[in-house]
Write a structure and sequence with these properties.
Layout: E1 8-9, H1 14-19, E2 24-25, E3 29-34, H2 40-53, E4 58-62, H3 67-76, E5 84-88, H4 94-97, H5 101-104, H6 107-126, E6 130-134, H7 136-140, H8 146-162, E7 166-171, H9 180-185, E8 188-194, E9 199-206
The structure holds adenosine-5'-triphosphate and magnesium ion (MG).
């Protein structure tokens, strides 16, 4: 069931909790967006670390960076992610070996089914309270058309939130590949940016 109370879940970052009036709304889904290297993955890891500290089942679904790489970087920042479950769906070396298949089928047809299945079975097994999908942009390339992608993302998010999870999903936005559709789907948006002055975080949408 979807949660209609406005109970807050700590973001794992003190200052962000303050901005978010206590944290993310439980069982809502937030888009974490920003250019490359602005700290999207790191912000999401704080959220999972906080959950695992509280003994909650937490899941990190990685479509881009390898799980080991993420763990290594997190360790350098002093984070403890031992109890965070990682589902590594980043491209494996045999992705290239299978390249021939893509001449016959579109990547969408070849990849989508197993990807969705492995996330669903992991989520059913773990019943996570906190889920991060990094990044949802990667899932876009597995959809053969944009309407199908939106429908899939929406049902994917519903599946996770109605199962009891608060969800963060990241996206890389650029001029020729905007993330407008993901912005509409999200209950809230956390935008990270970096310029000469420094790094900043902005909450540009917050339902509830
Ligand atoms: N608040 C912060 N203060 C200092 N360093 C940070 C902060 N957040 C992230 N970093 C560092 O910046 C680098 C990039 O962070 P991160 O990988 O989280 O960014 P990203 O937006 O996920 O990048 P990408 O677009 O490549 O996925 C990392 O080395 C990380 O340790
Ligand atoms: Mg990242």
């Amino acid at each position: 069931m979807r949660n209609y109370s406005n109970e807050r879940v700590s973001t794992g970052i003190e200052g962000l909790d303050e901005v978010m009036l206590g944290g993310y709304i439980r069982q809502n889904a937030y888009l974490v967006t920003g250019q490359a290297g602005t700290g999207k993955t790191t912000l999401c890891l704080h959220f999972l670390e906080e959950g695992s500290r509280n003994g909650e089942p937490t899941l990190f679904v990685s479509f881009g960076e390898k799980a080991e790489q993420i763990m290594k970087n997190a360790k350098k920042l002093g984070m403890k992610l031992e109890n965070v479950e990682f589902l590594d769906l980043s491209p494996s070396p045999d992705f290239f070996a299978r390249a021939e298949m893509y001449d016959v089928f579109s990547p969408a047809e070849v990849e989508r089914e197993p990807v969705v299945k492995s996330i669903v079975s992991k989520a059913e097994e773990l019943a996570p309270k906190r889920v991060v999908v990094d990044s949802m942009t990667q899932l876009r390339y597995l959809s053969s058309d944009i309407f199908l992608f939106r429908k899939q993302v929406l049902s994917f998010i519903r599946f996770l939130t109605e199962g009891g999870a608060t969800v963060l999903f990241t996206a890389e936005a650029s001029g020729d590949a905007p993330d407008d559709d993901l912005r509409f789907l999200a209950d809230g948006i956390i935008e990270l940016s970096m310029d000469e002055i420094g790094s900043s975080v902005e909450v540009s949408k917050s339902r509830g």
